[in-house]
Amino acid sequence: MNKVLVIGSGGREHAIVEALSRSSKVDKIYCAPGNAGIASLAECVKIGVEDVDSLAKFANVNGINLTVVGPEAALAAGVVNKFNEKGLRIFGPTKEAARIESSKEFAKEIMDKCGVPTAAYRVFDEFAPAWEYVKNRPLPAVIKYDGLAAGKGVVVAMSYDEAENALKDMLLDASFGKGRVVVEDFLSGPEFSFMCIVSGEKVYPLDIAQDHKRAYDGDKGPNTGGMGAYSPVPFISDAVRAEALEKIIKPVAKGLVNEQVPFTGVLYGGLILTEDGPKVIEFNARFGDPETEVVLPRMKSDIYDLFNAAIDGNDFEIEWNPEAVLGIVMASKGYPGSYEKGAAIEGLDKVNGYVYHMGTAEKGGKILTAGGRVIMVVAKGSDIREAQSKALEETAKIDCDNLFYRKDIGKQAL
Length: 414
Ligand code: AMP
Ligand code: GLY
Hints:
alpha+beta, five-stranded parallel β-sheet, 23 strands, globular, binds adenosine monophosphate
């Protein structure tokens, strides 16, 4: 009897649980803590993602064969280290390897050592020299807080005022915590997400997706965790994908092995296709959200086998369905700033497609909004255009005054 535990409570974990539920080898799925949508596929257990002792105890007592980690917070709390200590099987990087995401400076050092293409950068701990540097350089200025900041730690400043304020926030006012800042060259081109399963030096690439980071149509408004995604990405050719694999992902996987922090898990390359080829914007040490919700539905291979192959370092060829998948995030009005929770979501049963729950709660048989990003409506089509029009049609069936969404997800591919 194979029992799997998935750690996390968002749309990404809903997609991981859904993919696992399609495996003939998985008999029972638990999710900690899960959400109202995940509850239809898995047994949700009330353990927080950073409570590593309780998670390990749960896995041990319940005879869990495989644990899959969703969010970075669990990685940073050392959940993989703890499971490894106790001899429990887990898919995800140790907290040391996960620094490829949590420390921008560490990521830049590894990239430098391995000759991986990325923006040139400088690191600062003090406001005065940072501002001196930025004000003498061309705009836009790219300023990144060095630490986990839930996607809000990056400012692409179009004016010197904005740049100065960002540096003050990050270095003087400690509004992010006492930190360091990486200032880097501005890169331009279309962005894409290349998630790869990694096991030491072995890399099993997933199909490419594209996220939409800005809150509003036309890529306007503040950066968010991601307002929609699609896969595959037609303008990223096989040649570019191969170049990204050989010049970016494989060298970094090898670099982490050389640094004595071998990586097992998802190495997510946030890449940009510049005139000089693909370059790195950032790395994540986990599945992307919302990219996972459009990539995993296309996976034909058994994901339980894939996770196990990666843990054991065995070869595995991933097979894909050729169809296009596109998803639209419905977020609480006000997000990524402050927003209200507790609004009833109607029409979920009318949707012809898949609804991933990102931030919902169930109360008295009703599904309520309970987060910034609330649900993601995902549709399939023979190409991106068809998937987009279906996703828009299905999204319109959701009735909730407190939600908004972008109507142009996928536009770069049309
Ligand atoms: P990150 O959290 O590092 O992915 O950055 C968030 C967003 O800021 C990215 O998706 C890009 O749109 C933008 N960005 C970050 N770094 C750069 C850069 N060096 N050049 C241009 N845009 C960038
Ligand atoms: N969608 C971007 C991320 O997961 O960080």
